[in-house]
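no rush on this but wanted to send it before i forget. theres a chain ive been looking at and ive put its sequence and its fold in token form underneath. i want to understand how the tokens follow from the sequence so walk me through it. thanks a lot i owe you, the record is right below:
>
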Amino acid sequence: MLVFLFAATLFVFSSCRKSPHKLGANILPKDAQLNIYYGFTDSIFGHSVREDSIRTDELSKNLLGSMVDSVFGVTTANIAVQYSLSTNGTDFGTNPHLDSLVMYLRYNGELFGDSLSVQKLHIYELTQDIFYDSVYHSNSSFQAGQFDYADLSFVPAPHDSVVLGEGVLADTLPPMMMINLSNISSELGQKILDADTASLADNDEFVKYFKGLYLASEPVSSKGALFAVNFMLRNSQMIVYYSNDEDGDSLQYRLNVTSSSARINTYQHDYSLSPQDFKQQVLQGDTTLGKAKLYVQGAGGVKTIIQIPDIHDYTHSSQIAINEAKLVLPGLDNNPAYPPSRLALVKIREDGKYEPLIDQYEGEEYFGGTYHKSTNSYTFRITRYMQSIFTGDEPNYGLYLFVSGASVNPESYVIRGNKSPDDSLGMHLEILYTDLEKGN
């Protein structure tokens, strides 16, 4: 349905109660008056689908953990990471013997879910090469050994500082995980110490010898959380503590994750616990259910396809200038737990890929997409895109809507569809246009 405001209607145009097509009639001379119309259409349809995959290599931060959401089921985040030598050509001396191998991994602050839930983390040695200049996606899989060097149960503490030592020797470090990878077996740490001269010559050779680690979160059955870590922050490192025949004990060597180190997030989504209407639409392809609800989920989860109506069917004019067009996306739930701070809206190309809308180049403040807590909604200004569709300069293959920065943002949101069962105004398009064809 598309509703435009005419003289006989009771709708309000902005704060003025004059009929929109008479706006300014008492100011402009009759031969200069314009026919301006304002209206909205809920004849804008959408349906939600699973993301095929999203790119997740060399991110600004990474996600770990597992959480259960009442709508989006279980999401589990894993990481493949490559470590580099801190110095080339290092020499561990004669008969180096491992004391311990400890991974220090800085939290990045964010946690989504239950902060008190116990998580379980498993860490394996990679058996396949990974490369920082290759492209990896959220559904990538990696070959790793079967031995678990961590088997760690813990409660994430992204805001708690770590104190090492006591008294005047105490050292306060930023929030981090400290994982001893030699408690269960010394094999991994001793392997590093036993590397030959060629393998320790430089990083290119070292990563052939020690390919990296795979951090696998164990899926939870209830509650849980996803949390951010950052391998690039100061103090994120792996330290080999060892001794040798020449220098005795208390020796250490640092392995780093650098900008040239491969680091990849992978995500697993289990929707078996999701509501039936979600599964019917997202997994089984029942597009009609998009009239009631639409979904977006980060971390390579769910996106929405939106079909824009042909405005020619409603304007009955071949010449219009669209002054403003806004796509409004209200939330279904009054108090969503983790609404994305931003959504992304892009146009679909004929080949199924996508590219930015022309309106996006006007800047974020103009284009929109930011979450408005006061109205529990998102709004996009797509004026130029709608004008180009009307004039035929732009093909209309629809739009993709998804979580902005979905590679590292796991937030999710349920949108009220255009035909909400409770008759509340759902997804709609607001249009202000000037009819250049009609006379007064």
About this structure: Residues 4-28 have pLDDT under 50 and may be disordered.
